[in-house]
Amino acid sequence: MSSAPVRQVSSLFKIGRWSALAVGLSYGFFHARTLRNEAAARHIESEYSRKVALIEEAKKKYAESKSSNTGSSSEKFNFDDPNFDADKWAKHLESKFK
Question: Over the chain, what is the mean pLDDT?
């Protein structure tokens, strides 16, 4: 059995191959870091907008409760009146304690 002679690879080819590997790894590292930073910024922005939306919703509910409380509390019931409406009074209590 005779084996074929081993062919020598050029040093320029070896250097080029290792350089391409180093450039690819460097690019991958920096690109991944950029993507990670952008994702973190998007996450922070989405959390901020979620909190702002919650605050706006709480403000609306607070305003609704203030307006419903002021409108309902101005309603006075006279229990001694012969035309006293018990159903109206019950609905008032029901809406007050919801």
Answer: 88
